[in-house]
Amino acid sequence: MKVEKKDLGKSQMELTVELTVDEFKPYIVKGAEKVSQEIKINGFRPGKIPYAVLKDKIGEMSLLEEGARIAINKTVDKAIMDNMGGRVPVGQPEVNITKLAPGNPLEYKVVMAILPEVKLGNYKNLKIKKNEIKADDKEADKAIDYLLESRVKEAIVGREAKEGDKVIISVEMFLDNVPIDGGQKNDMPIVLGKDYIVPGFDKQLLKSKKGETREFKLPYPKDFHMANLAGKMVEFKVKIKEVYERQMPKADDEFAKQFGLNNMEELKNNIKKSLAEEKRQKEGERQEIELITKIIDKSDFGDIPEVLINNEAETMVYELKHGIEHQGGKFADYLSSIKKTEEQLKLDMAPNAVKRVKSALIIRAIGDKEKIEAGEKDIDREVEKLLKQYQGYEKVTARVKDPEYRAYLHNTLTSRKVVEKLKEWNVEK
């Protein structure tokens, strides 16, 4: 097999691969065998049809094309890996047959995107500020209020709704007497006395009773994320479907015992520790973003392949979609509210996708230069941790044991090690 390579620029490479007549011949035979299994010719059993008969029946080029497909599948990966010269291919290569004729060699071309070269700027002693991590009593009290709220007891009542009650409503929204797209909600819970997107909405429902309908107008906040509603006076038509009285548990030692603790002081201290850990994680993320951004600004990048940007933009759309659905929303409603298609949203995300790609390239380049890499023991520890965490979840545990997942873990843990080292070099003590 002969391979010639050509740098096409813009982080693309082309390989021209040639198999001699003798190298190609066994694949033609395999192609004919495959065709003979799939075609019916009277007088011959499947898989036992002679080449000459197949040639007369469907044409020799059909047999050569099938042989070429098999040959390419068997040889293309080796052709790529043996001729990259240290460059890393990304995405799926584009393969085209350029020469195919009876009694001739097979020639095909492979065009692939490759990771761009990165000329690293300074990545040490960048003096990233370290913010103090602390959770105060006020934050802990707010978290306790949330816990109390999550364990409230509710009972249907026949009286008028008062502050502290929960009402179940159906609501219709209108703008200039025209129904708002997506502005109809059924079985929506509202706790009277709590703040909502539209200030004062809950107060309009005080002293309402089951079966009653109320109509009123309220302005949406000027900074509301849906431009068609921001700052607009919206008409609401609300039907009360049920009224619930709510009984909040007391914040005492008996409440703390529900969480396996002795008293409220222990609960509050545990909450403060959890809040501090959450802040510590967010501070770590902030440091990483500031640090990587500084290194990106000091570095030079080759042309970034479109496939990398597109893949990252698709990942960002998926993350947004998952986040909206996790909170009970519908991605289709979100797209409708911003008046964009999923493809347009992906295009909007391209600039941030480029930043994320550059971040990954920076981390990879520093890992290579500093010879930072996750070892087999690191991966084994992570696998063991995941198996314990997801014990009983057969699909998850099977995935964790997959060799491909180990490769994914290797990349993830290597990136984590690089970031930890960068913080060690750059974050002020």
UniProtKB/TrEMBL annotation:
Keywords: Cell cycle, Cell division, Chaperone, Coiled coil, Cytoplasm, Isomerase, Rotamase. It is found in: Cytoplasm. It is an enzyme of class 5 (isomerase). Residues 1-145 form the Trigger factor ribosome-binding bacterial domain. Its EC number is 5.2.1.8. InterPro entries: PPIase_dom_sf, PPIase_FKBP_dom, Trig_fac, Trigger_fac_C, Trigger_fac_C_sf, Trigger_fac_ribosome-bd_bac, Trigger_fac_ribosome-bd_sf, Trigger_fact/SurA_dom_sf. GO terms for cellular component: cytoplasm. The keyword Signal does not apply. It holds the Pfam family Trigger_C. Residues 261-292 form a coiled coil. GO terms for molecular function: peptidyl-prolyl cis-trans isomerase activity; protein folding chaperone; ribosome binding. Residues 264-424 form the Trigger factor C-terminal domain. Its main location: cytoplasm. Residues 159-240 form the PPIase FKBP-type domain. GO terms for biological process: 'de novo' cotranslational protein folding; cell division; protein transport; protein unfolding. It catalyses: [protein]-peptidylproline (omega=180) = [protein]-peptidylproline (omega=0). Involved in protein export. Acts as a chaperone by maintaining the newly synthesized protein in an open conformation. Functions as a peptidyl-prolyl cis-trans isomerase. Consists of 3 domains; the N-terminus binds the ribosome, the middle domain has PPIase activity, while the C-terminus has intrinsic chaperone activity on its own. Belongs to the FKBP-type PPIase family. Tig subfamily. This is Trigger factor.
